Amino acid sequence: MLSPATNFLLSNGLSIPAVGFGTYKAGDGDGDVLSNAIAQGYRHFDTASFYGTEAALGQAVAESGIPREDFFLTSKLWKTEMGYDAALRAFDATLERMGTDYLDLYLIHWPRPDLELEDWAKLDRETWRALERLHESGLVRAIGVSNFLPHHLEPLLASANVAPMVDQLEFHPGYTQDEAVAFCQNHNILVEAWSPLGRNRLAGNDVLTRLAAEHGVSPAQICLRFALQRGVLPLPKSSSPERMAENLDLFSFSLTEEEMEALSTMPQTGWSGEHPDRPRVRFQEVN
Q: Per the residue annotation, which of 51, 102, 106, 175 is the catalytic one?
């Protein structure tokens, strides 16, 4: 649920800033990008053990002079860190790298560590038990998943004591994963959008270009506003301070029902090629 104060509310009542900053491929040597994002007003950051950005993010937060409680920090455990004990160890390592004593949100990055594992649902349940323990202990304020489709979520929901509060999915015009988004929203799971700009593969799209011109904004702002109006929290990233600021400026305009329909029904474009149950498809084969 999106509040007038530009936050979403999770199922446990926790408030989360409605736009986050993604840190994928913002390497640990690129702390200036993260410091610039903080200076531009970002307080919600998404990282992962796989990204290699946890330490740089923790340092940028510490050096900002802004209280830790003013930030909303998310990280994710990788495929090789699944299982009850492994997940607890992974979390401890994440806290150490980030230099914080708690996380706001912790996610399972993918529902299965490899495509050969048949009993992935059992491993998901064991991993989820660890996240429930972390949540119960107060070390994590909210827990969730990433790249889980309905058939991954159903067995987890059937056994969970605490339901996932978030599911991060690839979501952007041209790849909206309607079935998965609807399932999450029907189960009070907030969807966060990774790659909300289609990894720049939507550049020059006729629909986006036209709507951007009509509203006097950038195509990126159209993509991000589209996500918000679909009830999805976008996680854009940029190395440009100007683009960072632009990507936060999403509340001075809105899209009509007709414009939302045009964006929702765009042909598939911009898909990353990533799928939790299939080998990655190369870019030239999906666009």
A: 51
pLDDT tens digits, one per residue of 59-96: 999 999 999 999 999 999 999 999 999 999 999 999 99
- What is the pTM assigned to this prediction? 0.95
Is residue 283 within 8 Å of 81, Cβ to Cβ? no
Could you give the domains of the chain? 7-286 (3.20.20.100)
pLDDT in tens, 223-241: 999 999 999 999 999 999 9
Residue 206: other Cβ atoms inside 10 A: 8
Is 102 noted as a catalytic residue in this protein? Answer: no
Query: Could you give phi then psi for residue 99, rounded to 5 degrees?
Result: 65, 35
Structure tokens at 230: 């679909």
| Residue 47 to residues 116, 162, 168, 275, Cα–Cα distance (Å) | 27, 23, 12, 20
Count CA atoms within 13 Å of residue 277 on its CB side.
Answer: 9
